[in-house]
Amino acid sequence: MLQGDGREEAEGRTWRILVSEIVGRDVVNRRGEELGTVDRVIRSNDRLYVVLEHGGFLGLGEDEVAVPLDRISSVQGDDQLLMRGMSEEDIEAMPNISSETGTELRANMRVEISES
């Protein structure tokens, strides 16, 4: 168990992590490409998504895309999440979402990230 920061590691490499511990993290793929930064976690049609901000410069002109939470395969250190099966090009090709899409999860809610 990881102490003091709201994260727990259970058997089978499944992390139960607070939403507040996901928001603001950088997301990278296995090649080390930066895919974006988690802005929020939402529920839409009974599925959880991370909303990534990508592109832009210094917070201006950023696009937002929703990626299924189950694409996140591990927590890396204190500032990164690893996403499998996505490239920068895949993220750029995804449609932008509106701020009204889905229901935002509260910061004190826990979600599961399973390594695969």
TrEMBL record:
<dbReference type="InterPro" id="IPR027275">
    <property type="entry name" value="PRC-brl_dom"/>
</dbReference>
<dbReference type="InterPro" id="IPR011033">
    <property type="entry name" value="PRC_barrel-like_sf"/>
</dbReference>
<feature type="compositionally biased region" description="Basic and acidic residues">
    <location>
        <begin position="107"/>
        <end position="116"/>
    </location>
</feature>
<dbReference type="Pfam" id="PF05239">
    <property type="entry name" value="PRC"/>
</dbReference>
<feature type="region of interest" description="Disordered">
    <location>
        <begin position="96"/>
        <end position="116"/>
    </location>
</feature>
<feature type="domain" description="PRC-barrel">
    <location>
        <begin position="18"/>
        <end position="78"/>
    </location>
</feature>
<protein>
    <submittedName>
        <fullName>Sporulation protein YlmC with PRC-barrel domain</fullName>
    </submittedName>
</protein>
